[in-house]
Amino acid sequence: MIYVALLRGINVGGKNKVDMKMLKLTFENAGMTDVVTYINTGNIIFSHHNLSKAELAHVLEEVIYKDFELHIRVVIRSIDEIRQIMDAVPDTWQNDKHMKSDVLFLWEDIDDESVLENLVIKPDIDTVTYVPGAVLWSVAKKDVTKSGLSRIVGTKLYKQMTVRNVNTARKIYELMQTAPR
C-alpha cells in the first residue's frame, strides 16, 4: 500500500531541524520501501504492506525520536484517502499571490465534520469544507489577516492537525500516483 507520512512541525522557523536524506534512511531502516521525501517540511511517500496506519504512525514516531531525539507527531494517509481529499479541492484553488488555500490534515481523534464547529469561520471571507481526513480552507490573500484561519494558530485544535498548502498537497498526490506499486 502507498502512504504519505505528514510530519508536524519540522524545519519550521529553525526548530526541529531534520535532514531529509537522514529521514529517508530512518524510514528505510524502519522497513518502509520506495521512500521519497518532498520538500523539507516532512512529507514522505512510502510503501508498506503489513502494518495498519496507527501502527505505522507509532513506529515512525518512535524511530524519529530514536534517530533525531524529537517528539514529532505523524499523520498517515493512504493513496485512496489522499485521492478523496484532493478530489474535494476545487481546481480553482491555488496558493499564489492572489489566494491562500490550505489542507489541514486532521488527527484521528478530531477527524469528524463536527471539527468545523470549533473553527472561527468568516463566511464572507473564508471558504471552508470538511472532507474525511482534512479541512479545506481558502481565502483571498488580501483578506488573510481578517480570516478565521489566522486565529487557529497556537490553539489546542491546531496541535491536532498538520497543514499543507494546496500546491504541496497536489504534488504529494502526484508523487503517490507515480510511486511503484
UniProtKB/TrEMBL annotation:
<protein>
    <submittedName>
        <fullName>Uncharacterized protein (DUF1697 family)</fullName>
    </submittedName>
</protein>
<dbReference type="InterPro" id="IPR012545">
    <property type="entry name" value="DUF1697"/>
</dbReference>
<dbReference type="Pfam" id="PF08002">
    <property type="entry name" value="DUF1697"/>
</dbReference>
